């Protein structure tokens, strides 16, 4: 791809590094920014720079935050006896968007994956054990909300082993089953089987 300007070429090269952005899309974005008002481009550059250099991670749950403690951990109205363990910040966002969960979180920062060289020591597992195992801890339930992949199941199993001996702490996992509006005949056997095993008992 030929470029009329080395500056455009450099901008396209940097934009194309982003996931899901090919060189044609990167060129379209670069030309859009070139034609936009100077303030628009400057505001975008400033917002990205501030995000990269000023965002920190919550000292308690390891989620992204603007301060030492994130808004969720600092919120006294949340149920701090209930901790939902997730692998990534995107999972926090997804669960929060449901509006159904009122507890707090713990972000592992990934899942155990020997193939990729990620072991338990590379994740925020020790801090989870410390957080739930102290005498003054108010945590009574830990929900393992980790994607049902081979790596995710390995991580959940490891966490269960690490946490099972903690007194007065119940370990649970999110139910896995049929999505709303889904047809049973089109569900794969693993999903259908888990929906039966993790079924909710109806009140009589």
TrEMBL record:
InterPro entries: DNA_Rcmb_RecR, Rcmb_RecR, Rcmb_RecR_Znf, TOPRIM_dom, TOPRIM_RecR. CDD domains: TOPRIM_recR. A zinc finger (C4-type) spans 58-73. Keywords: DNA damage, DNA recombination, DNA repair, Metal-binding, Zinc, Zinc-finger. Residues 81-179 form the Toprim domain. It comes from the Bacteria. The keyword Iron does not apply. SUPFAM superfamilies: Recombination protein RecR (SSF111304). Pfam families: RecR_C (PF21175), RecR_HhH (PF21176), RecR_ZnF (PF02132), Toprim_4 (PF13662). The keyword Phosphoprotein does not apply. PROSITE patterns: RECR, TOPRIM. Transmembrane segments: none annotated. Gene3D superfamilies: 3.40.1360.10, 6.10.250.240, RecR Domain 1. HAMAP family: RecR. May play a role in DNA repair. It seems to be involved in an RecBC-independent recombinational process of DNA repair. It may act with RecF and RecO. Belongs to the RecR family. This is Recombination protein RecR. It comes from Hymenobacter jeongseonensis.
């Amino acid at each position: 791809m030929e470029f009329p300007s080395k500056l455009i070429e450099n901008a396209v090269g940097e934009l194309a590094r982003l996931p899901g952005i090919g060189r044609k899309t990167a060129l379209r974005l670069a030309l859009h920014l070139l034609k936009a008002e100077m303030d628009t481009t400057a505001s975008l550059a400033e917002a990205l720079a501030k995000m990269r250099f000023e965002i920190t991670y919550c000292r308690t749950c390891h989620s992204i935050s603007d301060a030492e403690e994130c808004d969720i951990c600092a919120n006294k109205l949340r149920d701090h006896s209930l901790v939902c363990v997730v692998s990534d910040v995107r999972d926090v966002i997804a669960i929060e968007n449901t509006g159904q969960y009122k507890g707090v979180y713990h972000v592992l920062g990934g899942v155990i994956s020997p193939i990729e060289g990620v072991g338990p020591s590379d994740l925020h597992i020790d801090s989870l054990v410390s957080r739930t195992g102290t005498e003054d801890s108010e945590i009574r339930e830990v929900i393992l909300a980790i994607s049902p992949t081979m790596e995710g199941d390995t991580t959940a199993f490891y966490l269960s082993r690490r946490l099972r001996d903690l007194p007065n702490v119940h370990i649970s996992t999110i139910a896995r089953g049929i999505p709303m509006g889904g047809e049973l005949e089109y569900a794969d056997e693993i999903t259908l089987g888990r929906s039966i095993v993790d079924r909710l008992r109806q009140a009589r």
